[in-house]
Amino acid sequence: NSFCTLLEGLIAATTMSRWAVACAVAVALLACGAAAMTTKVEAKTEWCFREDVGKDIPLRFNFKVTAGGKLDIDASVYDGSGRKLHSWHGVTEGHYEVHGDAANTKFRFCFSNKMAHFTPKWVSFFTHKGVHPNVANVEHLDPIEKTIMELNEKISELRDKHDELRVEEKEHRATIEDANERVWLWSGVEGFSLLFMGVLQIFFLKRFLEVRSSV
C-alpha cells in the first residue's frame, strides 16, 4: 500500500536514529505484513496481479493450488520490463523471492490454466514484503533493537505459517464438504432404489395374486 511505499522511501533516503529504526521495524511489521487471497483461474485462461516494492526491499511470493483437477498449474514471475524471472509448470505449490532495485520496482505474478480444457483451478497465494537492509543490519543495533528485529522475523514466520495453515484449512474444508455431498447423494440414490424395489415387489406380488385368483 501507499504507507508501505512511503516507509520504504524514508528508510532508504534518510539516516535514522536507533530508536527510529526500531519504530520503523515495528510499524513495517504491523502495516506491511503479508497479503493473502484466493483466486479462481478458469480453463484456458491466465490470471495475473502486480506488486510494487521499493528499492532493495525483498518480496516473498508463495502459492498453492487448493482445488480443481489434478491440483496443478503453471505460474510465472516477471519484472517491470516483462522479463521472465522464474516459472513453474504443472506444480501444486511454489515460492520465490524478488528484490526491488533501481531498474525494477514493479513485478507481475501470473497463474496459467491454459493446459486445462474444462477444469478451473483455485489458487491461494500470498506476498510478504521484508524490510530495508539498512533497517535489518543488526550489527549496528543495541540489544533492545536486536530483540525487536528477532521478534519481527519470528512474527513474520508465524504470519507466513498462519497463511499456509489457512490455505490447508480451506482445502480440508472443501474436501469434507465434497465428501458430505457425495454421502448425501449416495444416500438419496440408495433410498430411491429401495423405494423403487419395494414398489416393484408389491406390483409383481399383486399381479401374481391376481393370476392365482383367476386360475
Automatic annotation (TrEMBL):
Domain (GOLD): residue spans on this chain: 46-129
How does this protein lie in the membrane?
Single-pass membrane protein; Single-pass type I membrane protein
Among the Pfam families in the record, one is EMP24_GP25L
| Gene Ontology cellular-component terms listed | endomembrane system; membrane
Which branch of life, at top level?
A: Eukaryota
Principal subcellular localization: membrane
Question: Which compartments does it reside in?
Answer: Endomembrane system; Membrane
Q: Where is the signal peptide?
A: none
Q: What sections of the protein cross the membrane?
A: 183-205
User: What UniProt keywords are attached to this protein's entry?
Assistant: Coiled coil, Membrane, Signal, Transmembrane, Transmembrane helix
Query: Does S-adenosyl-L-methionine count among this protein's keywords?
Result: no
Q: Which residues form a coiled coil?
A: 141-182
The family classification in the record reads:
Belongs to the EMP24/GP25L family.
Entry's PANTHER family? TRANSMEMBRANE EMP24 DOMAIN-CONTAINING PROTEIN
Its protein name is GOLD domain-containing protein
